[in-house]
Amino acid sequence: MAPIATHTITSSDCEPAGFILPDLLNDCRYPLRMNPHSHHVSRASEEWLFTEAHIVEPEISKFRALRAHELTASFFPDVDASHLRILSDFMNWSFMLDDYLDDCDIDDARRMHECCISALRDPINYRTENLGGKACKLFISRVTETAGPGCTERFIHALDLFFIAAAKEADNRVKGHIRDLASYTTLRRDLTGCKPFYALIEYAAQIDLPDEVVSHPVIMAMEDAANDYVAWSNDICSYNKEQSCHDIYSNVIAVLMREQGLDLQGAFDYSGQLCKSAIQRFEDNRAALPSWGEEVDRQVAIYVQGLLDVAVGSLHWTLDSARYFGKDRQTVKGDRFIKLLPKRPL
After folding, report:
1. Cβ 131 vs Cβ 165: under 8 Å
2. How many CA atoms lie within 13 A of 283 on its CB side?
3. Does the pTM exceed 0.85?
4. pLDDT tens by residue, 288-340
């Protein structure tokens, strides 16, 4: 059941001084697991990115402040160091790609889409000097050394969906369009970036789930629930930064304020309930998992744990990274109060 709207917009034209975050950490009681190889792998991966993408100071320091290696370590806590290095390279590149797509127009997004998918589909014969395309060629060549065909195809398809969604988001920005909750949810599931990492859960565990498993409604419902949790919790934490940059067209807070007639705090409270309902959907479907036999059930258990690791890792990283709360992140985790940032000049 969807949460009931309990706050409405007041007649005041004044913006509030701030808002209180939902108690995300208390509502998500799953343990955070971290890969022990992260420290020494992360430095090598970062140096690779800085060299390949020609990144120099002060951008190097800004990137390191993101602590992207902690996100990779929490997504894949059980993988060995050699596979973690490949996954770290992809994660680091993903951050660069995400920032690029946030600032580009529709045509640039589509060109990057075509380049990257072509590189993933034919890394040997496809020629490009585009940094994104070259990174994709390298990454997929390394992944396919040990990844199964089903896992590989799911990874490429998920990235394809991500690029399609990114172009739609760019169109929303140009038109100033805020979607309704239902259509936004559908778009956001492709835009979180979770789906490629769901395929990489299989790669990290060296499994290749049968088609009848990945297409099963219960598995798909668990993926959607975990994905929604990542989306809503990230939107909650990123809203302040995004509104200050006039970029609220892909955020559930703006969607709820427009569709439900909520004030700012009401939208945050409602979104917190959405997060809780996503956790409950995940658990309800986990309880309904069928059996496919001992070996496949073992692989499914690994995959389900991986979905949880991505959701939990994303939450903790979002709250701990400087990306959204800067130097105030420890204070924010304590009192959950956020001072509304002033809007930057257009």
Report:
1. no
2. 9
3. yes
4. 999 999 999 999 999 999 999 999 999 999 998 888 988 888 888 889 999 99
